[in-house]
Amino acid sequence: MAAIDVVNDAGLGDDDDFDEAIETDDPALPEGRYLDREISWLAFNQRVLELAEDETIPVLERTNFLAIFATNLDEFFMVRVAGLKRRILTGLAVASNVGRAPSDILSDISGTAHDLQNRHAAAWENLVRPALAEAGITIVDWSSLDEGDRSRLTEYFQQQVFPVLMPLAVDPAHPFPYISGLSLNLSVRVRNSRSGRQEFARLKVPQMLPRFVPVELVAGSGAIRFIALEDLIANHLGDLFPGMEVLEHHVFRVTRNEDVEIEEDESENLIQALEKELLRRRFGPPIRLEITEDMDDVTLGLLVRELDITEQEVYRLPAPLDLGGLFSFSDLDRPQLRYPKRLPTTALQLQPSEPNGKADIFQAVSERDVLVHHPYESFATSVQAFLEQAAADPNVLAIKQTLYRTSGDSPIVEALIDAAEAGKQVLALVEIKARFDEQANISWARKLEKAGVHVVYGLVGLKTHCKLALVIRQENGRLRHYSHIGTGNYNPKTSRIYEDLGLFTADDQVGKDLTRLFNELSGYAIEKKFKRLLVAPLHLRKGLLKRIEQERRNAEAGKPSGIRIKMNSIVDEAIIDGLYRASQAGVPIDIWVRGICSLKPGQAGLSETIRVRSILGRYLEHSRIFSFHNDGDPQVFIGSADMMHRNLDRRVEALVRLTDPGHLAEIEQLFDMAVDDKTSSWHLESEGTWTRHSVDEAGQPLTDLQDWLMVKTSRKRRARVRR
Questions:
Q1: SS3 575
Q2: What is the pLDDT of residues 158-175, one digit of tens each?
Q3: Does 465 qualify as catalytic in the annotation?
């Protein structure tokens, strides 16, 4: 799921973003001031592709970036393109913050996506595949194999592949079969040797088998050869169609609309409604057909006709299709072809006082707020340890937590179960509408309910996206709140590759805020304001706009000002316009974005003081930070929200304000490094193009922010050990 999460958190958005774009009519701001969100997302995926093309990156990591690009693009079609097409076909309004017709949007997407998929295929064939071969990892074709290789593979085919294959004929007695989304298929045209009649068949490549089959491991050298499963099958079609002459065979792949549309009715069981919709998802209409470049016109015509797609939706590519299958190379034991292995450290305040001892999380947090930075600092020894200690502590009376995406065999879920079984009050708010994790979250919800956990699903019409945990502990005859507010999911697996921040605090005001918020989430509505939190959907946008406006006023009054924001995506027109107005007043603004950016920086008279940077690399930049100079009294927030309509209007999101001077200095230093011209990053130019800056004028590599952070964090640990 890691690659899918890349795109989920890159800001694809819900389909109803299309008809909820905020109307903006400010005569002080020019028309055409936004970049198209769909093209901006494709530009993000191009940045992923550029990492795959980078010869300075270890080759298995480049292979992984190719796979991430492919799966990202799959979901882009399944969600965004599918949503656009559905709205056009049904006559629903499609709002565009760039004022273009829906058909023009689809045309631009198609042209850009075609170019990117061709570039992606070329990166594999001309750059990454040869680099793998140099390292002793070769992907071969059947035609290059000798008799001994073919004999071994034929035996493998007969024993492991042939029994699970299901050829489906297409003739008057057999209608054209259903083609499942994202499945790899062989189209086969055969001729009956007796009648001379030509027939068509579809053969699905089994998804449960290895996509790349080992041909031979060269003993002692570590060299290994693979053949694509579809190539192996294609060269044994005679076994599947005995007595028939195989005329043509080609590989194709269909992408379908797999977004879930659920009408929430308070009178209907939400889980049951969602499960029905998940069944319908499998049969969404096709919106992309990928074919190998050698496919003949007869076969293509049949597929286009039966799948009812347009020429614009056909993507003719060199084999192999579905380079998402390259994820399988992640299992290869070739550490020299990967990023150097790095282990996260334990945050200083959470380190045990005695060697090999166990830290007391409550004691540490009671003394001072703790800010943890994953994956540089360990999730296991911070968030996981916090919940496990809470589950085992007899003084803990209650635990309340939100769960948006978690992982299989999650220690977080197990801790909640242990707490419930120990007699504690446990509330879990499980967001079962988290896209593509719906079924997994339903399973977790039922498992928690069976253990006695109070499970709720949030508010009708809203997704609960905030990352919150609250522990109520009895100390010296009174109750004390221990809170965690994070920017990322409670997922131990993704915590190793996602960059996120999390605040632990025993601050009574934060605890009271969270108590009220959890009560409202398990109740009926979110209406009240909070003290140290900004909460969507009612107050988050207003709170941020208020602080942006204050920076504008400070600048106009000649006072120091500044805004720094880090997020996955920025699309919301009201926020962008607020930043434009602040820039017009002279406020220096740094935007650090991973995915979509609809803001145009560096425009004369509009955004001259705005810089936009993007950093992609070994870890997925995922934290959200909002920092305001506030005339020397910084207001800095971290949390779960991106600047998108869905986050601000249709989700429960929460930002918490940092108050510890050390934490404020840490955030300031992080931004200083990220926007420094000596740090490797992509710069968004005023006309909307992204330019990578990875080397200096002398050709030397610029500083890698993630490497710098890992070294910095490790040094802090060593300094603690020496003390």
A1: helix
A2: 999 999 999 988 866 567
A3: yes
Looking up tokens 């994956």 gives 375
Instruction: Report which of residues 26 and 631 the model is more confident about.
Output: 631
Return the CATH number at 451: 3.30.870.10
Q: Which two tokens stand for residue 442?
A: 């339903």
Same domain as 435, residue 475: yes
- The CATH number assigned to the domain holding 205 equals 3.30.1840.10
> What are the backbone dihedrals phi and psi of residue 554, each rounded to the nearest 5 degrees, phi first?
-60, -45
Catalytic pick from 465, 481, 484, 645? 465
Mapped onto helix, strand or coil, the DSSP state of residue 181 is coil
Which among 270, 304, 333 is the end of a domain? Answer: 333
Is 72 annotated as contributing to ligand binding?
yes
Q: How many structural domains compose the chain?
A: 3
pLDDT at position 646 over 70: yes
**Number of helices followed by number of strands (H, E) in the chain:** 21, 27
Q: What pLDDT digit, counting tens, does each position of 465-496 carry?
A: 899 999 999 999 999 999 999 999 999 999 99
What does DSSP assign to residue 460? Answer: T
pLDDT at 442: 73
pLDDT attached to residue 267: 38
CA–chain centroid gap for 564, Å, is 23
**Cα of 142 vs its chain's centroid, Å:** 36
> Any binding-site annotation on 446?
no
Residue 405 annotated as binding? yes
Give the end-to-end CA distance of the chain in Å, rounded to a whole number: 41
Please give the Cα distance from 48 to 595 (Å, whole number): 10
pLDDT of residue 14: 44
Residue 666 to residue 501: CA distance in whole angstroms = 12
Q: In this model, does residue 622 exceed pLDDT 90?
A: yes
